Amino acid sequence: MSLADAIDRPGISPAGNAPGESWGEWFDRHSRTFFIAPAVTLILIFAIFPTFYSIVFALSRVRFTADGLNFRFVGLQNFYKQFFGNDQVHFLGKTDSMGIFGTVFFVVVAAALLWWLYRSLKITSWVGMLGRIISAVMAIFIAWVVAASLVSGNTIGTLLTTLFYVFAGCALQFVIGTGLAFLCSQPILGKNFFRVIFFIPLMVTPLGVGYAMKMVADVTKGPFEPLLRGFGIEDWVWSADPWAARFVMMICDSWQWIPFIFICMLAALENVPRDHVEAAEVDGASSIQIFREVTWPQIVPVAVTVLLIRMIEAFKIVDLPNIMTGGGPGSSTESMTLHSLYIWRSNDIGTSAAVAYLLLILTVVVCASLFNYVVLGQLRKARA
Amino acid sequence: MSYRKLLTGALAAGVAVSGLTAIAFAGEFDGVTVNILTRPGYVIAGRLAERGKEFEAATGGKIVVTEVPFAEIFPKIQADWSTGTNSIDVGVFAAGWGVELDAAGLLEDMDPYIAKDTKLDLADVAPYFREFGQKVGGKTKLLMVDGDFQMVYYRKDVLEKAGLQPPKTWDEYLDVASKIHGQDMNGDGQADYGSCIFKKRNAQSYFAIQTVAASFVQTQGTAQGFHFDGATMKPVINNDAWKKAFELYKETGKYGPPEELNMDIGDTRAIFKAGRCGLLIEWGDPGTLQLDPDAAGVKGLIFAVGAVGTKEVLDRATGKLVPVTKENAPYSVDGINYAPFAAFGGWAGAINAKIDQKKKDAAYAFLSYMNQAAQSNVDVTIGATGYNPYRNSQLASTDLWVKAGMPADLAENYLGAINGALNNLNMASDMKIPGAQKYTGVVLDTELARYLAGEITVDEALKNIEAGWEEVTEDFGRDEQIKAQALAMGTGG
Predict the structure, then answer these.
(1) What are the b/e assignments for B212-226, b being 16+ CB within 10 Å?
(2) Rounded Cα gap, residues B429 and B214, in angstroms
(3) Any CB–CB contact under 8 A between A215 and chain B?
(4) In chain A, what percentage of residues exceed pLDDT 90?
(5) Which of B82, B231, B346, B351 has the fewest CB atoms nearer than 10 Å to its CB?
């Protein structure tokens, strides 16, 4: 390739310097590669390589010996026992007796998903269809777990507990965070003060939040004790009730993460051109109409992106349940990350890696599905 | 060479030699740092750090104590030593956990050090702790800093006021707890609790359930054990005895603090010191903790029962409970089978076999210093240390304890309870086989917590534990585990 070719086709960089080309010129030509190489190398070393290497762990039983780690290949056994073996109830919950409501729920959801797939046949490519099949299979499986455990009145496992933190928690955080951002974007007295106050929880370390919340939420000695006593609730503690514990965990997590939604949405709201709003006001639109027709379409791209980022983060919740309840009562507040951590802490690295991979698959499929079928849809709608 | 130069050279050499000499005598372990890993908080770790300062002043060797959550102690040490990281020189953990580390060749044999040690006086260490706690495969691989039994404690004043006797059986435990539950035991006008047990998951709840279960399951003496069939290593857990123990353990919650499922041992200690517990299951600590200034309200009031027993025991052939007789429970007394549980076995220090010899020497010297009667006989009388008696000189007389401020009647009761447990021929040993921490601290603890929280039934819990224990046994190799169990129980090997 001549130098002229190289200039015409900048993406192509043949090895070695071209005839008549000095080393300086060659270096300039490859400078992009050199600049990006350290970052790529670091990512390969610290992210990609461990991720792939951990597959070896997930497929093995690992023993600690005097000579280091001893691997024994066990195939998919570490994954299998999460679904069928000894850890099934821990991971999926109790799924052995599906009630009538559970059956109806599952049939309706499965039918809707199959109908969605059927309709997709006509409008998408084979690659898109493959993605939709993966999403639908995951959704049907989760629907079955929900139907057989939660809807049928059985105990749920770490899978649904994680999804509860993600969907219920993120929804709560999004509504409150956006609401606070909307209030602080209005011309109200002391809004700068409130902006700072609302932002502070995000700056506290999760460990600190965990211990602080443990004290705040202590209904026998904490600040709410007199209130509960006033209502005649003296012997009830949230930490002994599975669903109460999950809700407390979600609320405490929300306390820390609402500021993230708040600050992003505030930036988005403040970027909405004032003249658009003023024009709507001149046209006689109500506040709700202005928000729905003018403001919301302009902040949708930020809103869905923030929600997506927050959901990815929420899948990894670990600090709060670990500090506040140790995953208890039982395993009711245990997220999949905490599940993996506890197994890892007992030096069962293979099973821990398997649970971590299951979390990775869940996170990727749920978030990719959300992005493709919800976020992109909203973005297209907003652009239209 | 001129006279002046010769003089200057001689002077310089003299200064250097005197300096070296001074350094050599400044401390035997100058420049050596021993990193110790153990549990968090002042309990256990605090006294190690304090004695470490004394050790440093005397020998120059620096002691650094690192604290990690209880559930992380063993895996951290195992990973550190096995992978050759060797950032930890000494682990202070349950005596029973040493066997798994030793099987991987990670523990230093202390016998050669002991042979040269004139201050240790091993003969003064009570036989159970010397032979079972400190030795693995006949060699001393650990040195105790603490001796452990779980016992039942009761508020003497509360029971006397209610006209009740201390419980002899677990059914009586429930009966007493139910009768005193809700009474104001510390005069603050609030209703207090009949029973206090640390039931938080990933903490130490799994020891308390074994204390309850032991007397239902073990009848033929210490060598029988109460976890496995020694010949096959099949779990002896999915049966009516463990079922009854689980149900009983759960029922104690009716008379406990409402947040008991989220309480670890620090939490229950805080409330019994505040005078809010009528009965509790604990290690030896409440005996001395009540002498602390913040327990002034209960000083001299918390008495111990060395063992609580059962009137029914497991028939291993059928898996059912049958009434106690002299035939099926030869060590029973008045129709009650007792099996005091040596829970945890005591905190003991072990040395990483892969560290430098100088560090090993310093590490051994420090562990010996902690174990020697001169230090230990003081430390065990201070409740906050978390150290309980394990030397004959600590158990033989109440003098030490009375001198430390314990009322004479309490000292009599306290030592009587410990000696009674220690000398019981049906004393139940904690697990001392590879995977011990996983069998109990992971599998048993998780399923117990899920049962207590109402996530699963008792039958499901026991079935899951049985399957989980089988998995651990298969993982380590059944034949190897059978040999290890025989060695631990003193029946073979």
Answers:
(1) bbbbbbbbebbbbbb
(2) 9
(3) no
(4) 44
(5) B231
pLDDT grade, residue B38 (50/70/90)? very high
Nearest beta carbon to residue B455 from set A155, A220, A346 = A155
Residues of B whose CB is below 8 A from A345: 71-72, 75
Domains and CATH numbers, chain A: 3-58 (no CATH), 85-93+155-383 (1.10.3720.10)
C-alpha span between B469 and B359 (Å, rounded): 37
Contacts of A346 in chain B (CB under 8 A): 71, 75, 437-438, 441-442
The SS3 call for residue B93 is strand
pLDDT tens by residue, A254-266: 999 999 999 999 9
DSSP reduced 3-state for B94: strand
Predicted confidence at residue A45, as pLDDT, reads 83
Q: Write the DSSP symbol of residue B397.
A: -
pLDDT band at A372 (very low <50, low <70, confident <90, very high): confident
Contacts of A330 in chain B (CB under 8 A): 201, 449-456
Of A236, A328, A346, the CB nearest to B449: A328
Decide the pairing of beta strands B33-38 and B62-67: parallel
Closest CB from A235, A240, A327 relative to B202? A327
Q: Which residues contact A304 (CB under 8 A, 6 or more apart)?
A: A374, A375, A378, A379
The verdict on pTM exceeding 0.95 is: no
- CB within 8 Å of A354: residues ≥ 6 apart: A58, A78, A79, A82
Q: Do A237 and B258 touch (CB under 8 A)?
A: yes
Judge: B82–A64 Cβ closer than 8 Å, yes or no.
yes
CB contact at 8 A, B280 and B177? no
Q: Which contacts (CB < 8 Å, 24+ apart) does range B265-269 have?
A: B265/B198, B265/B203, B265/B204, B266/B41, B266/B43, B267/B198, B267/B200, B268/B196, B268/B197, B268/B198
> How many angstroms from the chain centroid is the CA of residue B225?
18
Q: What is the pLDDT of residues B252-281, one digit of tens each?
A: 999 999 889 989 898 999 999 999 999 999
Nearest CA-CA partner of B399 in B391, B408, B390: B408
Is residue A13's pLDDT more than 90? no
Do the Cβ atoms of B491 and B223 come closer than 8 Å?
Answer: yes
- pLDDT digits 0-9 by tens, A150-198: 999 888 999 999 999 999 999 999 999 999 999 998 888 888 888 888 8
ipTM of the complex as predicted: 0.79
Which residues, in sequence order, are bridge partners of residue B342? B429
The dihedral built from the CA positions of residue A165, A166, A167 and A170, taken in this order, carries a sign that is: positive
